[in-house]
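#struct-pred
JK: can someone run the complex with calcium ion? inputs below
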Amino acid sequence: MLSDKKLKGAALVMALFTTAIIASVSAGLFSLVSVNLENSKSSLSKQQAVITTLSLESFTKKYLSTKENRNNIVLASNNFSQESPINLPLDRGNLEANISDMGQCFNLNSLISVSASGNETANKENLEFLKNLMRSFFIEEQKIEEISSALIDWLDKDFFPDSYLGAEDDFYQNEKPSRLTSNQLFFDITELRDVKGMTEEVFQKLKPYICVLNNVDIKINVNSLNPFYPNILVALSSNSLSDLEARNILNNRPLGGYASVSDFLNQQEIKNSFSSKFSKKNLILETKYFILNTNIRIDEKDFHFKSHILMQNDSPKVVRRKIGEYL
Ligand SMILES: [Ca+2]
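RT: done, structure tokens with the ligand placed:
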């Protein structure tokens, strides 16, 4: 039989052991509660940010519903101050927002034309424009051809390369990471990184000039052309204008913008350099696509939202929302 002393010793060890278990479990529970509290707080902040963005969207849609205001945004986007026009203190943070005029973006989804019978072909004029845009960055001709061919195969629904430089599943399956062709329109410009031939350097050069929309009716607003981003004008001139010449033309534009597309086309420098069908068919005086960029800081947490707003039947509609920035 165990002596009383030994029993007491064993009981003490057991008690200490139990206390240690309870202490460690409590510590675990406490940290779990803290994490949950932190998660709830973060989720509440996010909800608050989303609600604030939605109300700002409503305000923006109302603002963009008049042609005059849309034109004001276009003209304001082209001045030298690129600072956020909206800056509001919030209860527990701050809100900054601006509206980007997307009137000078090239819609990558317009590279494919679909006939009434559903046949898909490369839109040659649009493809030539994109090639000219790449040429304006002095990208090698072979690289341009490789990217252009791969882009068409990436967008068209078939599984056969259109040209010897094209690429379908056979190519992408052997790549690292292994992947398949999308065979549908782009949803996000960052998908361009997956296309054969595309490099990060080329992507970053094209990024300010491209967009992806299912609406093919996106044309280039001559009043949206920005001296900070002259490559669209260089590409419109089939690269007969230099970067500097394009910048000069845009810096000398009338203060209130061009009154008509012909006013723009009739300038001497433009007259001599614009010959492509694309440049004659794709210029307008009105922007139909805007992005509301909202940056909200609540409880020291940052949230970035992009609301894509498209004019549909003369009324602004939010067609897409994106959380975060384009890298
Ligand atoms: Ca394809």
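RT: quick notes.
The chain has a mean pLDDT of 87.
Residues 153, 156, 158-159, 168, 181, 183 surround calcium ion (CB under 6 Å).
JK: thanks, will look after standup
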